[in-house]
Amino acid sequence: MIVCEKGHEHVVRSLLEYNANIDTNDKNGVTALMIACFNGHNHIVNILLRHNAQIDKKIIEDETTPLMIAYEKTIVDETTSLMIACEKGHNHGVKSLLEHNANVGTKNKNDWTALMIVSQIGPNHVVKSPSENNANIDAINVA
Hints:
mainly alpha, Serine Threonine Protein Phosphatase 5, Tetratricopeptide repeat, Ankyrin repeat-containing protein, ANK repeat, Ankyrin_rpt, Ankyrin_rpt-contain_sf, repeat
């Protein structure tokens, strides 16, 4: 997962050639795909998606990861890779995840969808992608 954080594409490719488990997660449920999305390493996101990384895995409830602390960013529990990419404004990552059928209707613990997250804090160019992929524009949260 560290190679995904650092953006070392050649190491990611080598690990995958030797059948590394692409969906391994840490004790908090954080996967390599989440880390690549969080850091905007779109080339690694695409490699992981081509190798069928699970796109809708969630961070385990009530846990904040060291990566989030390091970036002074708290992501609510049950966050998906799509939500992370939307929040960080990584349009290419959002597009790649949607092309691989990321679930746009998934809600986190606070009942927020990716579209809600990006409409609150993300750049406008990202909003187009989830809403063009059948995101429920009438969804509400109860938090």
